[in-house]
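So, can you check this record?

>
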Amino acid sequence: MFSIFKKRTPIEKLQNRHAKLLQEAFVLSKSNRSASDAKMVEAQKVEQQINDLQRKA
């Protein structure tokens, strides 16, 4: 009922950022392959951060 007031956990924030980066990489893959690759590398770094946080929890 009051989920709009619920704070997001750091893992949820990183998961949202990861999803956005993957979407941007997909869109860029149609026009600019090098920019798409850069977004994929950034998404992999975020995924590694998510995995590290999950291991600590």
Summary: The chain has one domain: 9-56. Helices lie at 10-28, 33-56.
